[in-house]
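Project channel, design review

CF: Before we commit to the Tabrizicola soli constructs, I'd like one complete example in the thread so the newer folks can see what an input/output pair looks like. Taking Cupin domain-containing protein.
RD: sounds good, go ahead.
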Amino acid sequence: MRQNAGISQRQLAEASGVPHGQISMIETSRSSPSVASLRKILGGLSVTMSEFFEPDTPASQSVFFKPHELRDLTTRLYSTLDDPRGKIMFQQVGDAKAHNLQILHERYEPGADTGAQMLEHVSHEGGIVVAGEIEVTVGDQCAVLKAGDSYLFDSTLPHRFRNIGDREAVVVSACTPPYL
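CF: and here is what came back for Cupin domain-containing protein:
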């Protein structure tokens, strides 16, 4: 994708805010990016995660979706890992870009973490914890949310999600404009 865009590794590193060495290691399959790093790299290419993972998915006019119809935004990230611990799974409802609203079904295995480097993007997001518990940090505020708890914040504030529990955490979230 970088080569098709006609940019160098250094240019992509600058555009995405990711170290040049990390770009090189990912391209030579010596490293797999975290979800946060992949999102930054794709942002440097002006590509969403949905477009990256399912580039040929036709636009759908569907209003209702079965579980198998959700867009998997993360499985390919983990296809080479033997240990599922620390895995994050994002499944998107429909065409987020067409509606300017991204609705996600999120699953965080024990130990899963969006990364030590806090996420920041121009959006607003909110969600409800459906099962398990998840630590959510937004700016200088941090809370462990359990089933039934929820959050809502301006995504330009640095934020992070971590499953510090011993069982899977499940969250249903929304973000506008779409981030992933």
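RD: helpful, thanks. The beta strands are 71-72, 88-92, 102-108, 124-131, 133-138, 141-146, 150-154, 159-162, 169-176.
CF: The longest helix spans residues 35-44.
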